[in-house]
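Batch manifest, entry 17 of 40.
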Amino acid sequence: MSDDYFLRNRATIAIITGGTQGLGLAIAKRLAREGARGIILSGRSVDKGEGAAASVGSLGTECFFVKADVSVPEDCYRLVAAALERFGSVNGLVNSAGATDRGTLLDTSPERWEGLFNTNARGPFLMMQGVVRHLVETGQPGSIANIISMTAHCGQSYLTAYSASKGALVTLTKNVANAFAAKHIRCNGILTGWMDSPGESATQQKFHGASEDWLTKAEAAQPMGQLVKPDQVAGLAAYLLSPESGVMTGALIDYDQRVSGAYPE
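Output type: structure tokens
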């Protein structure tokens, strides 16, 4: 492949929420390898954030960390402002931060419902609002990649509120894509399947009492013998942010090994 292939994002200045570990960090590193001009990572842990920014920066792209919780509106506003202050412009956004609290229809409290929607739907809404407003005001094109979930199609019984919040993000993705296509601002979503990540490991231990070998057992039961890997999805997210994805907008991509709507034969 040509060198230009690996420099397809060289004009990209992107904010990545939830960028301090797992998929968000994998996307940041992929963008850096593809020549991104600047990357802004956000998360709630300063130690993780500063370490992640240093690791991305070592790949040759200017990268800095902003401590932010996307469930807090003021943090979303501050994150966009900090990115614009540092780089003067932003043309890429990856909404990767997410909350995964469990809860069925019968035991989900209003507080848990609100917390999930604040992080998984309102947070991306406010981040898109800030970035798109900047792009419209400056007359620039841009691209957004929303990390959603296969549970947006339905989800398990213990993921009622989580699935609903991701379903809201599905609609937001398509609505924003339609509203700003004429401004050359694109918005697409990746519906990831069960993923091998630090966050998933913590979730399995916290909510399901998983043993240390949970990943080995889980992967053995999958059609392709593995869970989704962050590095695999990172390439797709980088493509969606890059000019190579052309006019693609409003797309919802199922990134999973189980086909939605398929049944045992």
